[in-house]
Amino acid sequence: GAGESETTDSRLVKDGVDPNHRHRLGWTALMVAAMNRQHSVVKALLEAGADPNAGDHFNNVYDTSREKGIHSLEGIKNTLRKWKSQVVLVSREDEFSSRLSSRAGFRGCTALHYATLADDPRTVQMLLEAGANPLQTNGLGHTPRVYAKEGDVSTVLQEWEGKFQEAQARREAEERRRFPLERRLKEHIIGQEGAINTVASAIRRKENGWYDEEHPLVFLFLGSSGIGKTELAKQVARYMHKDVKKVAKFIGSPPGYVGHEEGGQLTKLLKACPNAVVLFDEVDKAHPDVLTIMLQLFDEGRLTDGKGKTIECKDAIFIMTSNVASDEIAQHGLQLRREAEEISRRKLVESLDDVQKSNDIQISRQFKESVIRPILKAHFRRDEFLGRINEIVYFLPFCHSELLQLVSKELNFWAKKAKQRHGITLQWERPVLDLLAGGYNVHYGARSIKHEVERRVVNQLAAAYEQELLPKGCTLRLSVQDEEEQEEKKSPPGLRLQVVGEDSSARTLDIRPPSALTTNVSARAYYHQHHHTRSAIGRPG
After folding, report:
1. Where are the ANK repeats (predicted)?
2. pLDDT, tens only, 339-382
């Protein structure tokens, strides 16, 4: 509180009171100390770990009484008067009110905002040296310098703003050098090296200022379903914003859905976050009106909503995905891969690295121009729309080594579930990966591998579990049946499930086939039908 002496405050801090504790109406001790020019308290609080960038939660009298359910508006007004009178000690009432009226709101003001209002260079300097961000805005979008009088405080803030921007740019550039975007994206996405490199290069140009700042960056991702198009868009958003929630995802296309009565979703989001990553999924299904709006977005870098408000979005990144021409791209990709494999077979392969290089295949310019371009033109019927796309990014079918990675990823997912839910350790031999990779369907991409693992592995686990064939905490090994077993069962190669004993002995499980009714039911549905326990193997839900 303002009335308490500095020594008391310092002693409380030393006694282990939380230096970031807030008043019930939302401000912190550091804000009060900054406003009252209590230099030793500011110093003690900062040394104790008070956050110089914490923002005030107090908005204004009326909102706070509503939020807190405090019916005594007068009570709040009195508290607020005391709060404001602290500033009045150092600043004339009318002058302060005009700069930050009680109705305008205090939300988001930091200790630095308050020290600036109190026109106290010493506290401002202390806060800045402790890491206060001079560029942080309050709820009204103002940095502390907006409230500075001419003189020392204004000069110090201006100087530190420059330093802060330089340091931030240096940190970001260093981070990008140390951990390039390509490497980050490859951690989350299997294969698609060409697509990753194209996207990362374009974003690097944008980040380093080598781009046309009059237009937003526009990508069109082409390729079959389940191949990583949407996932790559999400990872780009996570990279740009350190937060995947910033991806604004629009699926489907009711006519004129930007603006109009219920609309304005996109304008609202772009206003809140002008450098958002906006994903238009399956854009080939969009209504022509939506394409017209998108053309305005891409061409003019602005969007006018139904109420006539215009939003600038030159800094945004737009990613469209489409399955148009996916068959042609898949066939072309497979053909290129066959050619690359043939060349690598002909060469005397000296190291495994050379084999891997055959995976990185490039789509020819001639194919893009003579096959893809006409398909896109016929579909979108607008040259200017295609003309505004910075990069058309091609997603290719997976090669064998990528399929093995996909299978491993799925098996690891289920192994983790088996361990968590049943204490069962799941192991598999290398041929199992090859067998399951055979379930790949070029039209369904990674989803076909997911379904193959569920169908051939998880359904068996679920059936074995139901038939009480799995001892608690056992180790299970998956392997491929040998030729004798296949002949005996007169079936194509299947999987064998064995319980491995502590002495390394292996006992093959004799799993009775589930009834015809459930043969083709996925593992999850199967489990929900037969097992109403929460511990069932299968994904939650």
Report:
1. 25-57, 107-139
2. 888 887 777 555 555 444 445 678 888 999 999 999 999 998 88
SS (H, E, C) 179-239: CCHHHHHHHHCCCCHHHHHHHHHHHHHHHCCCCCCCCCEEEEEECCCCCCHHHHHHHHHHH
β-strand partners of 480:
495
pLDDT at 292: 85
Q: Which candidate, 213, 267, 223, 272, places its Cα nearest to that of 246? A: 272
Lowest-confidence range among 68-82, 315-329, 434-448?
A: 68-82
SS3 478: strand
Q: Give yes or no on whether 6-173 and 179-397 have one common fold.
A: no
Domain positions in the chain: 6-173, 179-397, 400-530
Residue environment code for 418-438, b if the CB has 16+ CB neighbours within 10 A, otherwise e: beeebebebebeeebbebbbe
The pLDDT, as a whole number, for residue 112 is 93
Bridge partners of 508, per DSSP, are 498
Q: Average pLDDT for residues 67-95, to the nearest whole number? A: 52
Asked whether 391 and 199 are in contact (CB, 8 A), the reply is yes
Cα 324 to Cα 131: distance, rounded to the nearest angstrom: 51
What whole-number distance in Å separates Cα of residue 526 and Cα of residue 335? 39
- DSSP secondary-structure letter at 522? -
Reduce the DSSP state of residue 506 to 3 states and report it. Answer: strand
Sheet with 425-428: strands ordered across:
425-428, 475-480, 495-500, 506-508
Task: Enumerate long-range contacts of 419-424, CB under 8 Å, 24 or more apart.
Answer: 421/535, 421/536, 421/537, 422/465, 422/470, 422/472, 422/473, 422/535, 422/537, 423/472, 423/473, 424/470, 424/473, 424/474, 424/475, 424/476
Query: Which one has a higher pLDDT value, 489 or 416?
Result: 416
- The fold adopted by the segment(s) 179-397 is Rossmann fold (3.40.50)
Query: Is the Cα torsion angle 242, 244, 246, 248 positive or negative in sign?
Result: positive
CATH T-level assignment (fold) for domain 6-173:
1.25.40
Q: What fold is seen in the domain 400-530?
A: Helicase, Ruva Protein; domain 3 (1.10.8)
Q: Is 290 in a helix, a strand, or coil? A: helix
Do 104 and 60 meet the contact criterion of CB atoms below 8 Å apart? yes
Q: Which residues pair with 498 in a beta bridge?
A: 477, 508
DSSP state at residue 103: T
Whole-model pTM: value is 0.63
DSSP 8-class letter at 354: H
